[in-house]
Structure formats: C-alpha cells, structure tokens
C-alpha cells in the first residue's frame, strides 16, 4: 500500500531527497543467511553513479553505501550475512551545491512534476526535484544488489538498445561489451558507440535532450514464478519498470510487435530438451505465459522520455498564475536513459526475488 | 499482496473459473452513498459479452450479474445505494458445453499457460483455462461499472486503434461511433470497419488469429492523483492493464514515441486558461507527470497478442514428456483484443477510483 | 489493507449481511494440492450453527456451504483438491423472517454499532446488524476449516472456560467432552454443564445476557512461525480474535497473570527431551517467545461481552436527536460467547496457516 | 505485509538492532503540511530514554533523533513542515559497551527469543537481543510524536496502573502527576510512588523482576474511525499494543471484566448532550462499538511480563543440545513495564492516525 515501498515478501522502502542530508532504503523480508559484501553493493552503485563521462550529469556523488542493520559479519571480517531482519542502507548526499533556486521556486518547469506536486500536496520542496530526483534511484540499485543474491543462479543484465533516432544492431549483441570501460552507453553493440557519441554530443551542445529504449534480461529464473491474474510476473515487472523516472512505456517479450502478427507466428513451440526438460523453440513470450515464468529468459523493454531540463525557453505558468518562460540551467543528463540501465536491472532483480519468495510461500517449491 | 486482488482503498478481489458454477468479485472499500442500478452494471457487462458478432467467440453466456451484498435499495425500488461494506457480485456460468477435454488434459498448448500452471502448482485444471479464461474478465467489468461512479465527473472510454497490420486513421476519431450498433470492433474510425471486417474474416477463415492495440482515455480526472515514486498513477494503470489476459506491452501518453524525440518536442507547455486555471498546450505526457495526474485526459495504450488457439498444428510436449502436435479446436476469438476494450475501461476506472480515495486519505482533498 | 480481509499469504475476504440473499468468503493463496471434502467444511459450520439448544438464538439457518471455485474433484467424486486459485464459498441466507424494523430503523441500540455505523457511513442498513451480524462469522468458520489442512499435523481446539460469574474447574479438563452431544456450552469440564445451564436459564428468563471467556489451543505448530516486531505470531492471533464480534480483551499464555508475578516464576525453563529436541518445562509463554512460536501449544484466551440485545429498556437517542428508550425484542443469544468457540478455532487456524506460509516464503523451511 | 512495518495509510517501518551503528524508522503517508519541531520529537524520546532513575536500565543513550527526509524548514528556521513524502528518522547507538557475549552466544536464555530466533532463521545475532531489543521501541516513539499531530485535537496519554502485586488507587488519578519529575513510574496516583519504589527496590536487590499493567487513553478522537469486521479500531489498537515487547494481554474498555457482567450493566446508555450531540452516560466500551469509534475516549490496557533477565540461574539448553544453567548479568530493568508507557502512547497515536486517514479516504469525512 505504501507510496514508497514496492514488493511483498522481498520488500523495499526508499526515502530521501537529493537536497537533504541523505537518502536510503530498508529491505525487509530478505531471507536469512544470504552472504554478500559491501563491495558488491558498491560495485552496482558505481555503475549508476553520475559524473563518469561527459554524457551524464556532472554532479559528483561518491554514493558510498552504509549498511546499518540486518547483517552479521562473518569470521573473515568482510562477508556480511543477512539475519532475516530489515537491512537498512544509507547514502549521504555530498554534492549539494548551494544554488540559487529563486527562479524555479515558484515556476512550474514544463515536463517536470512541479505543477503536479503542487496540485497534490499544496506545497512543494522545489530544491532538486524532491522524491522525483534521479538520486532516489541509487537506493533501488543498493536493494537490487541484494535481490540478485536471493534467487540461486539468477543473472540479471541490461543494455541500452536505442537512443533517440539511433538504434543498435542486434546482430552485434555482446553482453560482455556492455560494461566495457570504453562504453559510456551500456550498449551491447560495439559499433554503436561512435554513432551514439556523435549523436549525443550534438544533442548536448544544443542544450537539448533525447530519450532511449532499455532492455533488461533475467536468466536462470525457474519456471512457476508469478500468478495467473493480478500478480502476473510480467505485470509486476512492468509496474516496477514504470516506477523508474521518465519511463513512458514497457513491454515484455516481443511486446507491441505481438499486436501485429498472427497466432502462428507468435506462440512459442516446445520440444523436449537433451536434459529431459521441455524447451521452447523461441521466446516471443519473454519468458512469461499466463503471468507465470516459463524458465526461459525474462525479457523486458522500456522507453525513457528525454529529460525536460533543456536550455531552450519553454512556455509555462507560475504558482501565482502568471505566464512565464522557463529555461533549465544546471547539471543535467542529455540522455537520462543511459543511467536507467543499472536501475532497471535492480528493479527486475527485486521483482523476481519477491515472486520467488511468494511462490515458495504458497507452494513450498524451492 | 493477494494474487487475486487489485487496488488498495478501492479493492477488487475476483474468483472463479469458466468451468465452475459461477464467477464473481468482491469490491471492498467503496465509499458509502454511491447510487447505481443493476442495469448500469449489466450494460457494461453486455458490451464485453461474447457471441455478439461473428468476430468473437460463439460461447453464449447471458452474463447476468447478481448483487449479493453491500447495498441498500432506495425507495424507488431500483436504485441501489452502497453502504460502505463489501459489494459481492456473482455471474453464473451457463454455457458449459460438455466437451471432451481428453486431448488437452495432458498436452501443453503452445502460447497458453498450460505448462506454466503445471510448473507452478504441480497440478492443473485443464478445463477452459482455469483462472486464465477470458470469462474472469467479466467480473472486472462489473467492478469497473461501480468504479466509474466513485470519481465525480470522470468519464472513461476505450477504443481499438489497430488490429494486426491494420490501424485506424486518428483523423476520423469519433467517440460516439465506438458503441455504434454497426461497429463490432469498438473502433472510433467509421472508415476502418470495412477494412477490419475484411481482414478479420480472412484471419478467421484460416483458423488463424491476430493481435490488436487498444487505447483507453479517462477524462475529468482531477490533478493530484498518484504519487512520485512507487505509487505512480501511470505505473498502477500500466500494471492493471498488463493484468489483462494476453497483454504484452503498455504505454502512457506518447509512450515509446517519447524515446525517439527531443526534450523540446516532448514536454507539454503550459498557459493560463480562460477560467484562471493552468492548461497544457499538448498532452504528450498522457495526463501524468512525475506519477501524478495533471488534470489533462489520462491516455494509455496496450498491445494484445493474437490468441494461441489456432487451427494450425503446433509443436509441443505433454505432461509425460512426449513430443506432440497441438491444434486447438473449439470456440475462440480470432482477435481477442476486440473484447479487451470494455475490460480495459474497467481496469482504468478502478485504478483511478483507488487513487482518488488514496489521495483523499493522505491529503484530505476531495 | 482491506477492511474485509485478513491474512497475507493465506488470505480470507468475507462479504455479506444477514438480510441479503447470501454471505460468503474468498480464500486466496491456499497452497495447491490440499485435499478436503465439503462434508468437512460443513461439519465445522454445523458446530457454529444457531438453533441447536435453548441457549442459543432460535434463528434457523441450514448454513449449507457451496464451493464455487478453486478446486478440482478427485476421481472418487467427493474429495476436493485445491488448485492454488481462490476458493469461493457461499452460504445462502434462508431464515430472514419478515420483521418489522420500524422501531429500530431510527433508534440507536445501546451497546450496538448502530450509532457508530451512522457516524462512519452517514447511512445504515438497520436490518439485522449489517456486517456486524453474527452470521458473518459462518464464513470465517468455512475458511478456517480449510486453514486447518494447511499446516501438517496441526490440531486446533477451543473451549468455553467461564460464563459470567461461573468458571470451569481446570482440573476436570477433558477435550473429548467439548464436542459431546450433551454439552451445549463447549465446556471442557463435565461438572460445569449443570452449573452453566442453571445459571444461563436464569439469565435467559430475565431477558438478560452474560459474557464469557473462551480458550483456544493449537497443537503441532512448528517452532519458528512469526517474526520479532510487527508480525508477531501472538500479535496476529490477538488481532484476529479481537476481530470477532463482542470481544473486549485477548491474552496469550498466562496473559494478564504475567503482570503480577516475577521473572523467576514466569520464564519457562528448558531441558533436552527424550527425542533429542529441546522441551519447555512449562508453557507460561503460551507457545510464543519474542513473537515466534516455540513448538509448544499455542494458547490464547479472550473475553466476550454480554450481548446488548436485552429485554430491559435502556436509554438512548435516535437519528433525529430525540431521547428514547430501547428494548430489543427478537431472537438473541443469552450468551453469545458460546458460539464464539468454533469461530475462534477458525481464526486461530487461519492465523497460523498464514504464518506458516510466510515463514516458508522467507526462509524456505517447511 | 511487511514484518517490520505497521499501519496502512500512516505507515511506519522500523529497522535496526541495539548493537549496530543506528536504529531508525521511515514514516510514510504522513499528510503534507504537518508542522512540528525536532524538539517535540525529542521530548517524547526523552520520556522513554533509559538511565533516568535507579528503576530502569543504566544503559546511557542520548537518543538524539536526526530527521533525514520528508520535511521542509519554515522561515523561522526551526519549524519543520511535512511534504507528504517519507519522513526518515535515525537515532545512533552510542552506548554499545564492549561486552563479552561468549556466555550467551550459544545458550538460549529462558523467556527470551533466543531459541525461537534460532528456530526461525537458522542463525542468530546474539548481541543485545537483535530486533527484540527494547531499543527498537525508541523509533516507535519518534513515529508516534508525528502521529499525534495528524488527528486535530487528539490527546494521547498513558499511565502505569499496576506493578506486580501492587496497583494504584484509581480514585487518586491525576494525569498531571504522570509526568512529574518526582514520579519515576508514570503512575497517575501520587500515593503509589512510595509503595512502588519500596516494592521495586526489593525486586531489584534480589536481582528479580516484575510485570506491570499500563493504561493508555486517547481523547478527542472523532466518532466513525474503524470498520465493522477486520479493520476494527480496537482490533488494530490491540494488535499494535501486542507488538510491544513482553506484552502478554490487551483489553479495550472494561475488557475481561465484560465477561463477568450482564448486558444491563455493560451497555453504555446514551442521551443528548448540551451541545445537541449524543453523549454516552458511561464508557464501558472504551470508546469503540462494533469496531468503530464512538467519540468517547479510547481506553486500552495491557499486561507486560517481567523481564526474563534475572540473576537467579535458570535451566536451559544451548545450540549444541547441552543442558545448561543461564543467569543474566548486565544492565536490565527490574520492571520493563515502566518504559512501556511512552511506547504505548506512540502505538496508540499511530493506530488512530492511520484510521483517521483511512476513514477520510473511504468516506471523505474530515
């Protein structure tokens, strides 16, 4: 029910704004006995961290996670072991530039949540976007790092597959390349880097912005997770991806393409595999049939809109009803979709971890 | 948490399979004092009902709703008034043809949830698809008819905008035409009827099937509903639309198109309206910014896959691990997306009603 | 969250009023593969059913349960097997005497929920107490009959231990006697029957009423169910017992007595049992330490107030603010606590079943 | 659902153990625009803080609360205003004496949750009781300080009414005396202080411990909060009081006494008050009828068991199955019930705040 919590058995509550002292999350329901290190959490956080290339905001945040509860330290002094009680993680806000907000304190920035916050709450913390700040997503990544450990054998990865008018060539897909040091875009297609860089430089220099499409894949997910009606695995995946800032659409498997083809083309056929288990001959379903996982890779994609923080003045109004022009100065990402990749991985991992525990609860299956 | 419930304050629990004696829903949390008639609920149910044209399954179900609790009858003997306690609605299953299920009892139909049910539950009621039967959606429509009454002034409508390779011409959009007696497709474009009819006749005669894209719109939704992070209005709308059978993708506003354009093109500008209230000059956002409603129409679209019940034999396996070919006989819709229109309207109405109550709870705003 | 649902993984939603056509419940989250018969459900319902002695209300309701969904029938044609989808159960209201309600339509009966319903909802279905009718509890008993099957080896029993000023002699405790045909009170003390009968005849003849104390015990509950803080097993047991009509207090183990004694007297000591497992030398804790089950019997007690439906006129007011005297005519129980025994067993069984699934979900332990 | 969260619309999640770096809570769903100061939160925390008399544990914790999110600072630089987003509060653990835990690392202390933690989680953080430490309750008090502001005009107070074999004289009840500097017991009866002091000194010197009964009262609660069946106001109050460490029983209004009296004695009569509103002539119901508030003061009582940390050796077993004797050294309260008073006030305030928002959500009433 909570407005700031997602998940049911693996349950993540996040808190904090970009301009307060800290942000954080509480992960409740984590199974006891999960072993991890702070360095593993930090590694995921570092992937999301801004300031690592000219294509993302230059806000400098070390994003050092502190783990405040819910773990014991193993005898090696490093490995942490979950106790089954809530894991509280906190990240301090460091780079809060003292900035003059007077020009946006009263003005509603087009495309941002300024007007809607005011409409909802009757007041608004105009500094840094409040809960809608991209900083909040760091806490999701921390939670996701823990979620990855919950489902034995699960591997969750993501990649950027399109940016504005440019898209990757799927024939070049190389998962290993996504995290490569020379790849500032999380693209799986080495040939796309130069194209994206050139394109985004143009966007950035104009003070403009552009959207993106991200694909996330979870392998090693056992068949049977999810439920037929209102706890569909794909439904919860889509909901959690939609909860990421600026996401405007989500699809599973072949997604919107499924609307254009026939039943013969769409349904994935089955045969017996070498190991005596059923295998699917294709994966149009994206690993989910009737809301329940098939054992095939879970595949989802989502569209991120271009940030509305741009240099071109735009028509708007202010709190007092005056018509104004708004131009967003300051540090912003020309393509916020890039950093959505590790966030989406985290949301996918959390969703599947939750369903893994729910399935185990109802059926007793491990 | 429940696998068969959606919503938080306006909360709908559904139950039943197509081959049991009845299906039904319990609507909990409905405000007291809502006035409606059984005929209004029935009218919505009749829109979803199969057997009304050659383009939908010929299963004949009267779908007569019985209201079992949660209402008082007004002095006119007809108007029902909610008491604030749970409204239980029941629909009997009438047309359960005694059918020979022996050929599918053990076989997993490709593209259906047969294999995943077996993987999840370890057993499977093979008659009629269990909870995944489209019959379940009748109960959603009943709940949605009540939800429409919760938000004063709200109007929720839906239309089919594409079928397989064919799409409407949005320039012809006419809401009044959607419910027209000569329009078996819920299309808003009169010119599309002949095209769709011809196309779908071809599909039907081949024993094939085809997908569709549906658009739903809610007007009269006050600004301020939703929340910034994990209770985004658009997130919950997408989740609830994704919970409809066979839906593979969902988008809000301009959706996936947003990934392809720039911040200048995408952000909706604002001006003061004649009535002294802010107005948006466009609605790319689909009526939601930062997860909170803007007061503009809420616009969502989703893709429905073609049903996997087709006459062409398809490769599959059975419960015992034998490789088999499966061909689906029986009554099926060549385009299940058509009947998704009233279902989607219901889901949109329920989602917004829930958020209306949640917003009122937290902020006291009406 | 729902006002008419309890439980999280084993989740029960009830609906219906005593003067509508039916009442019912939906049990969601039940594990698949649970085997039971309709006769077993009915047997529990028959225990709660009114009209079986002169000490309970003479309303005659057959309370025949119909199982509408969520089960398959086994080959014996009788055994039902849960499929893992929602089990909907319905009980028709038969004995709705056409009664003249005009004298209570506007008057608030003291001790009843009439005034508070009006204050909450702004309207009130004055026929039969609405949701506060004891009839609602029949649906809990049906759900509880299923819950008993969820935890392997669990046995849940209850008994009346005090009625007004009279109490049983615990030295005479005989579980087998509780369900004896000559025992209209669910008392475990054979010697108490004559005492209670005499006492209650006096109460009944005066048109008065009296309260009771009920004890419920669950044996065979594995150690480890519950959680340390806000999902304490004893907390949820107390909450669910408090949800029964007219309950004013609940205690676990030695309960309020614990406040009067010392730490030496109160804490249960432990030794190793013959089977190599720890055993407790006493059970003051009532089978719960730190919110988690110990493996000892779970023991809870609760106080039921005397019904406020009595023949003596009492001062009250009506909807229009007039001061009135109210006397309750009609069929009523002189001691509503008697029928609370099977209801409390059901609530205890449901609570433990829910925690059994939650524990399994988080820890994987069976 | 969460094991570490309570409330639905006013929702409190707590985290932390006594031996980690900090404890804290996240309050989600708080209405926007609530004005408070950090000093107000601190004042409530100071009431619960140990080390303030010889009758409570000598652990010295400053319990300084830090407010990390969800608020704006008003122009006075001191008043905080809730923004409607989650309020995260953190309290550092300061007095973590480096202690030798080797003697309890493997031994299960009788009456404590040691054995049950091990049974549940398969591992156990033996330092300081983990989540079952009384320190966790500081975070509830912080949340409760905020909850007090949510319901306009509500005043929540508590008092100790019995300690072991000694009880107050209710005729001496003086709310003002409860917080008096010379009153280390939160007793409302000035004459009881000497009695309790003498009694508890005896208990303390023997290394023993004793239980207590606490009463909490909420005045100014509007009629209409709660619901008839599974969201009864008294049910949720009892559940939340039962969630406090060491509580073994809870009652509302006249509680267990109601089981001993007749309907004539028990039901509260009504008349019209001078202000034209109904008044109750007594309050046996404790301010709740049929699960819904009457407008009278809400009155609840609960029993706290004596702490099991005592100097007398007690029989137990250890993790390896050896039979051992356990004696608890270290800092402990001879009567943990004393400090339960501010905790119970907090839980009562949070429960009512939650129901206030839920009622407003469903009915629109303020």
TrEMBL record, chains A, B, C, D:
It catalyses: 5-O-(1-carboxyvinyl)-3-phosphoshikimate = chorismate + phosphate. NADP(+) binds at residues 48, 54. Keywords: Amino-acid biosynthesis, Aromatic amino acid biosynthesis, FAD, Flavoprotein, FMN, Lyase, NADP. Its EC number is 4.2.3.5. Reduced FMN (FMNH(2)). CDD domains: Chorismate_synthase (cd07304). Pfam families: Chorismate_synt. One of its GO terms (molecular function) is chorismate synthase activity. Pathway: Metabolic intermediate biosynthesis; chorismate biosynthesis; chorismate from D-erythrose 4-phosphate and phosphoenolpyruvate: step 7/7. Its cofactor is FMNH2. FMN binds at residues 131-133, 245-246, 290, 305-309, 331. NCBIfam families: aroC, PRK05382.1. Belongs to the chorismate synthase family. Homotetramer. This reaction introduces a second double bond into the aromatic ring system. PANTHER family: CHORISMATE SYNTHASE. This is Chorismate synthase.
